[in-house]
């Protein structure tokens, strides 16, 4: 649906110890244009045609994190590359309307995902040219309170900076059953139930969440239409 929005005015820079922080959160997580099929009657089988009520465009991937942080009043900057194509122009415009500083490199094409919600879950198809934020992009906006990144990007975050990690299905498949040691740098890890089980190499959700929480102090698991839960310092919080 549509939401009424107003231009966001960022608060002034804040002192943190002996340094001045001009950015609360730097988002390095790849940003996408999401194309969401609304009201899909069923996922089509091969050779079938199914119908839906609408097709909605919205910022996706790391852009979701950036918008949410800005709406919480955080000074937020996106350094994930966006394309010079129509998709990139749309995502950039939407982020700037939300008060997010867009400061990443420009590429020819923007990653795009077709999201097909069905029942209590969804299926997705992604086209990703593979451009990623660089360590130099993050360093250029330091100092900052934290950086949002996915599992393959921990190396772009300077040592000593708080890291908020996300894990999508691509990362979960790449690190299935063998989470990277760098994951322990994360202040928190956010992922869905399928990816939690795949990443941890565990069939039971409780076992998967517990194994991941042994490396990261806070693990947040989403469960589709069901409420998310967190494991915080070994304790499950529903």
Describe the overall structure.
By secondary structure, the protein is of the alpha/beta class. The protein is 21% helix and 36% strand. It has 6 helices and 17 strands. It has helices at residues 62-71, 86-97, 135-139, 169-174, 193-200, 205-213, and strands at residues 14-16, 19-21, 23-27, 31-38, 54-61, 76-78, 82-83, 101-102, 106-107, 112-118, 121-127, 144-150, 162-166, 186-192, 218-223, 226-232, 235-237. The strands form 4 sheets. Strands 8-6-3-12-13-14-15-16-17 form a 9-stranded mixed beta sheet, with helices on both faces. Strands 5-4-10-11 form a 4-stranded mixed beta sheet. 38% of the residues are buried.
């Amino acid at each position: 649906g549509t939401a009424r929005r107003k231009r966001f005015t960022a608060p002034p820079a804040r002192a943190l110890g002996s340094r001045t922080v001009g950015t609360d959160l730097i988002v390095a997580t790849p940003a996408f244009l999401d194309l969401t099929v609304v009201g899909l009657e069923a996922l089509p089988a091969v050779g079938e045609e199914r119908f839906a009520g609408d097709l909605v465009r919205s910022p996706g991937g790391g852009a979701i994190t950036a918008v949410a942080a800005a709406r919480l009043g955080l000074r937020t900057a996106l350094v994930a590359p966006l394309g010079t194509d129509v998709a990139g122009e749309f995502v950039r415009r939407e982020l700037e309307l939300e008060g997010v500083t867009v400061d990443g490199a420009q590429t020819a094409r923007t990653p795009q995902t077709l999201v097909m919600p069905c029942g209590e879950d969804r299926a997705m198809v992604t086209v990703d040219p593979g451009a990623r934020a660089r360590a130099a992009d993050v360093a250029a906006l330091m100092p900052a309170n934290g950086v949002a990144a996915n599992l393959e990007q921990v190396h772009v975050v300077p040592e000593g900076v708080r890291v908020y990690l996300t894990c999508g299905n691509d990362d979960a498949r790449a690190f299935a059953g063998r989470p990277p040691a760098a994951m322990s740098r994360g202040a928190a890890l956010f992922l869905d139930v399928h990816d939690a089980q795949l990443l941890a190499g565990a069939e039971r959700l409780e076992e998967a969440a517990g194994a991941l929480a042994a490396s990261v102090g806070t693990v947040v698991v989403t469960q589709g239409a069901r409420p998310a839960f967190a494991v915080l310092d070994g304790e499950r919080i529903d």
